[in-house]
Amino acid sequence: MSAKEKLTSMITSEGADSLSVPKARPMLEGLKTMSLLKKIGLGLLILAIFLAPIFFQGFGHIFLIRIFAVIGLYILLALGLNIVVGYAGMLDFGRIAFYAVGAYTAMWVGVPIARALGEVLGGWSYFAALPLGGLAACLVALILGLPVMRLRGDYLTIVTLGFAEIVRICLANNIFGLTNGAKGLPRLGDSLGEPPGLQWLKYNTFFRLGNNFEFQFTSNIYWYFVIFILVILSIIIIRNLDNSRLGRSWAAVREDEVAAQAMGINTAKAKMYAFVIGAFFGGIAGVTFSYFQAYVSPGSFTFLESALVLAIVVIGGMGSIPGVLVGALAIQGIPEFIRGFASAGWFGNLPAEAISAISNYRYLVFGALMVFMMAVRPQGLIPSSRRSRELHATGSDAVRESTTLEDERNKVGETYHTQL
Amino acid sequence: MGILIQQIVNGVTLGGMYALIALGYTLVYGILLMINFAHAEMFMVGAYIGLFTLKFLSDPAWGMARLGLGPVQEFFTGSVLGLIIMFIIVFIVTGALTGLLGVLIERVAYRPLRNAPRLAPLISAIGVSIFLQNAVLLWIDSKPIPFPDIFPIVTLPYGLNSLKIFIVVTSIVLLLGLDTLVSRTKIGKAMRATSQDRGAAQLMGININSVIAATFFIGPALGAVAGIFYGMYYGAVIFNMGFFPGIKAFTAAVLGGIGNLRGAMLGGFMLGMIEALAVGFLPAGYSGYKDVVAFLVLIIVLIFRPGGLLGESVVEKV
Amino acid sequence: MKFKTLAIVLFVAFLAIALVGCNGGDAGGGDDGTTTATGVTTYTIGVAAPITQGSVAQGMDIKRGAQLAIETMNESEEAKAAGVQFKMVEGDDMSDDKTAVTVANTLISDRNLIGVVGHYNSRCSIPASAVYSEANVVMISPGSTNPDLTLQGLSGVFRTCATDDLQGPAGALFALDMGLKKAIVIDDSDTYGEGIADFFYEAFEDNGGTVLFREKTQVAERDFTALATKITAENPDIVFFGGGFETIAPFSKQMHDAGSSAPIMGGDAMAEQDYIDIGGSSVEGDYVTNVGAPVEGLPAAQDFVAAYKARFNLDSVGNFASYAYDAAFAIMKAALIVHEETGDVTTPAGRDALIAEVEKSNFEGVTGTISFNENGDTNNKVISLYKVVDQAWEFVESMDLGAK
To answer: Strand, helix or coil at B34?
Structure first.
């Protein structure tokens, strides 16, 4: 089947069955058709996620709540990037810029509200900051995207990377006197206020079971649940997007941009949507980070962060939501778990020097693991089923893995004469 | 006017180092279409290897003198001829060792991924980068190590000095050498063929693996030379020194048209120049924005020339 | 299919961690098991500093300083008589505020944790201090000089280093006293460098000096050739650089190469032997301000320097190692007193008593007398000026800002 036929079948619904590309299918409908086993699995999983912080807090392993909450933030970031990289096939290396925009917008919105309403009511500003931060990130993505969206492949990479550096440097230089430079926000005496309802929860949820178990609601648990809810909502939204007409046009653009254009898809528009929608999730992650941490500084938005978010998407499996979850668990979790378990004495009763060595070697091990994971599973831990179908369903002569180096080589060779 | 010339001198010196590093990015990209993010770390490791080689040869408390080669060491540090020979040895040894490390990394981290989805080697490269940084940090030192101050510095007018001239001249010689290597020699021909069409090159009897190995040898070797320059010029090496030059050199490679050797050279010198002139001529108090200027220039260039300055842009055929 | 895999993976992961978590709680022997059969009680001291990323040079100094303090204390008669030992747990915050808060949460997960020496960067200390304070754990920062840290009104937050609003102005006054009237101020866009440079700027202008301009650069930046050319053309009397020695040393070298003869001045993060080692002859005549009177005369300081060099096989002692050493001692000395009185420092009452006791600290440390004011800042408000003379830091003069 030629690329064009393949795309025709993908875009028009008649051909959808032959390629077994799923039709648009809302989440709830998906739930209906799910087998009983899957339903039980999903239920158990959500129950486990829900109960986990209570266990962790009760047994005093507070750091696990924090780590999982941070993993949740990275899931949000990676879900956004997954739209850009995994669905639309663009390589964005500056994801952290949108995160930063969201985080600083939260401060700009939240601090004046908290100042006006006072410490207790001020925290409600989160609900105003959340959409505003997301929209601000979208706006920034739109402004950056308009001129650069037509750049291909790696040229887009460096532009996004450069843009993220521009954002970070502007923040550090206290641009227009708004960001308080390296000292970060909020300024002394300001705050974002108390998270809504936290005080009530703190005083009403204390309980004790035996000698070893003592539960008390904390702000860590609070934000764990907020992030948990955001992640679930985002997954539902993104699943629906992926199964929509827009999602199929992303797939077409990713597979063969020229053919997609020939089929009447406005590729520039499709890519722009991906870029802007992806930025939205980065923005809301940033807002939540701001409130969770109650402090932001330019030091949080370095290139390494962008690289790690990209690593989450690729190691998990591009275009795959379960992949993002597992990838975030691996990338954000591994170093922190190594450290946390070492200092909590879970590797046995080691001398302090050994524990210190384990925790200091964690990034060395992590770097090696990244290489290893890629070597073992270059498609990622949980590759997207749709992508693999696209890549393999059409018979041996047509296995055009347009995403392999070899093929990109030919494609780019046609586009730019890059010979040395 | 004097200031302008001085800033141009500063820019060209910095640009020479960028260009050397940028070649490593562009070579690998030209052959494998892969952004080798670990290249910045090759530059860093090269600087360390250069530092130790230099110390071994010149420092009385180190190596040579202890091995009973005191007179040789005195010859190296005592005379101009000795210094020249010593620096040549340092460059060759450092280039060779770093090049071998580059080949090793290619073998371990990238070769298994040759037919993998194209983002996979990128992530591997980030992993290698994290690994190398931490290896140097944990196994060598977390503090900056002073670079031996043995290059004789003769100060000249307009902010010129012997070290700056040495850096620029050596960079240009190496750039021209590489250009000749790629355009005139047999291995260069093989590299160009591989870069155009790997499959066809293989059918023509070119050993792809050795071409790729050569690429991964040359890039880091040049990066290592830049690392030595960096150590001499700025006085110290540290485990995280690769980051800024790495990003800048990558920017330079893209600015010139990634995959294009002369583009990388042009991009390197241009970027060094942009930075120096931005610092020099932004209003007082705004030199912190010099990287913003550099990246903005990049973005603007790419908007008007999507293939970079020397990258040829052709409409895609279907 | 994929979904099921995911569900299983995640579920197993959670289950495993939760189960191990329960076991860990018991096996770790955490909570009430502080006292072993031999009657020795072990308390945990956290050390939070950048170890694998960021300001690693300073972070390692802090770690070593605290480690030496804990080892010294464990060997001491005081501790043996009281039946108390201290265990160090290290938290690598990578100079990143998000990681710092995770580190804080990791440290307080240990129920025997009574105090933390750390963090180094103010942008890490500020968000982490809220976590320690909530857990009623003493935090003594050996290196966060941003005044805001102790002005947040959190209990149990102290520091052994001087704040930027002392060192910056002191530097300005020293410079003006020497007749240096035209300054250029630079910082490295880090909380410390920016803060100290701001205060220098303000005090310099207020006291009759002129700041020609203010520039910013970045921590990892090493190329200052263009900036040096620009500054040299302005011909300032002095250049104040807020940042660490690893950034300022190359800067000073490049200023020298550009033909400038203006001395460079910086704060305590520059007061390291490494500064001179990297800069070589270019840094002759540069100035640095440091906290406290020169300690060479103090026997405690000499012992510390000797012990430090021997213990870690190093040639020089980093500045922040001494602050960390004193910080660790402040916690441990207070802990011994509270342990004597209440028998257990880890109870809520014990923790409150510990904070009160640290507040009352008054002993001769290796950086001078260690005592804290009502905010938790050190009362040691003597700032000394040093100059590079013949490749070594030479004491010039001291200024007591507390007296004013």
So the answer is: coil
- Please report whether residue A401 resides in a domain: no
Range of the domain at B50: 18-242
Whether chain B has a CB inside 8 Å of the CB on C274: the answer is yes
Chain B contact for A414, CB < 8 A?
Answer: yes
Taking only the tens place, the pLDDT of each residue in C310-357 is: 898 888 788 888 889 999 999 998 999 899 888 888 888 888 889 988
| pLDDT average per 10 residues of sequence, chain A (420 residues) | 50 42 50 75 85 80 87 93 88 89 92 84 87 94 87 83 91 85 81 79 75 78 91 91 86 82 84 92 94 87 88 88 90 82 69 77 87 87 71 39 46 44
Contact between C319 and C64 under an 8 Å Cβ cutoff? The reply is no
Q: How far apart are the first and last CA of chain A?
A: 34
Mean pLDDT score, C207-230: 88
Closest residue in B to C226 (Cα) is B276
- Residues found in chain B: 318
Q: Give domain status of residue B284, yes or no.
A: no
What's the domain count of chain B? 1
Q: Which of residues 49-108 of A touch B (CB under 8 A)?
A: 85, 91
In a domain, B256, yes or no: no
Average pLDDT score over residue span C135-152: 88
A80, A282 contact by CB (below 8 A): yes
pLDDT above 50 for C142 = yes
**The pLDDT value given to residue A345:** 66
**Nearest alpha carbon to residue A284 among A227, A331, A241, A246:** A227
Residues of B in CB contact (< 8 Å) with C are 3, 6-7, 10-11, 13-14, 134, 137-138, 142-144, 146, 149, 153, 155, 159, 161, 230, 234-236, 238-241, 243-244, 275-280, 284-285, 287-288, 290-291
Is A268 within a domain? yes
Taking the C-alpha atoms of residue C281 and residue B297, their distance in angstroms, rounded to an integer, is: 38
Alpha helix ranges (H) inside B118-158: 120-139
Q: Give the pTM.
A: 0.86
Residue length, chain A? 420
Measure the N-to-C terminal CA separation of chain B; round to a whole number of Å.
53
In a domain, B8, yes or no: no
Task: List pLDDT tens digits, range B285-304.
Answer: 788 888 899 999 999 998 88
- Say what percent of chain B tops pLDDT 90: 39
- Chain C residues with CB under 8 Å of B146 CB are 274, 277-278, 280
Question: Mutating which of B7, B18, B142, B164 best tests the C interface, going by the most C Cβ atoms within 10 A?
Answer: B142
Instruction: State how far the Cα of B304 lies from the Cα of C310, in Å rounded to an integer.
Output: 62
pLDDT attached to residue A53 = 83
**B21 in helix, strand or coil?**
helix
- 3-state secondary structure at position B148: coil
User: Angle, to 10 degrees, between the axis of helix C97-108 and the axis of helix A62-82?
Assistant: 150
Q: Is residue B248 part of a domain?
A: no
Q: What pLDDT does residue C237 have?
A: 92
Q: Do residues B15 and B164 make contact, with C-beta atoms less than 8 angstroms apart? A: no
DSSP 8-state class, residue C181: -
Please report whether residue A386 resides in a domain.
no
C229 touches chain B (CB under 8 A): yes
| Average pLDDT, rounded, for chain C | 84
- As for how many domains chain A has, the answer is 1
Which structural domain, as residue segments, surrounds residue A220? 3-302
Residue B39 CA: distances (Å) to CA of B35, B126, B167, C210 = 9, 10, 20, 45
Query: Under an 8 A CB cutoff, do B234 and C274 touch?
Result: no
At C6, the pLDDT band (50, 70, 90 cuts) reads low
Report residue C395: phi and psi, to 5°: -65, 135
For residue A359, tell me if it sits in a domain: no
The C-alpha of C278 sits at a distance from chain B's nearest C-alpha, in angstroms, of: 5
